[in-house]
């Protein structure tokens, strides 16, 4: 019995002595960390630069301030997320969904510059740092010159916006046109009832001058005739003729008011007219 106790005590001491040794061999995997912003110059004659990315972490790619993203082509769109936003800008967000994956991305700017980057997910690397923000710029002279010229491409987001605005404007115009047509049709259908032929004049004198008809609606007074020469139209107030504004086109006088009485005259000829029921 005493021997069994000694053996148990020895086992416990051995186990407790092993615990510190075990704890010393266990290492904690470093968490992935973001690098400081990085600037990259891209030349067509050189290999695409490698961008370090972190699993489920967003890496922001920024084009030069003069440019916007026209389109983005990703090599592996199932393991990676490429987001240029819904509004045309210089920003592209890249996020890997699968550890240790690699792909490339091709960016075309609205100025016609093309940028190719090699992407690599680095969460399993000994170095836990990934690129959180990367500024890219053209290294070739031709690319630099494009930055100061007018854009040659319309970014897809701007094109979609322009199409949407054009469709909305067309729909609005169609609605307004239908409303105007309906209003005009309603006016035409009601207009005959708004015409009043309630003027009296000397028909014999009117035939000599060429006056055929006088009428009004709720806003205007009209005189129609066939005249050798265009008579002058006056409004009669307190027994005196008064000049008024009127327009004349192809035998039709239009006065922008309702006249109670007036007259047309040319030379010695004169035709008075008066609205019936007016003293």
From TrEMBL:
<feature type="signal peptide">
    <location>
        <begin position="1"/>
        <end position="23"/>
    </location>
</feature>
<dbReference type="Pfam" id="PF03524">
    <property type="entry name" value="CagX"/>
</dbReference>
<dbReference type="InterPro" id="IPR038161">
    <property type="entry name" value="VirB9/CagX/TrbG_C_sf"/>
</dbReference>
<keyword id="KW-0732">Signal</keyword>
<keyword id="KW-0614">Plasmid</keyword>
<feature type="region of interest" description="Disordered">
    <location>
        <begin position="165"/>
        <end position="186"/>
    </location>
</feature>
<dbReference type="InterPro" id="IPR010258">
    <property type="entry name" value="Conjugal_tfr_TrbG/VirB9/CagX"/>
</dbReference>
<protein>
    <submittedName>
        <fullName>Conjugal transfer protein TrbG/VirB9/CagX</fullName>
    </submittedName>
</protein>
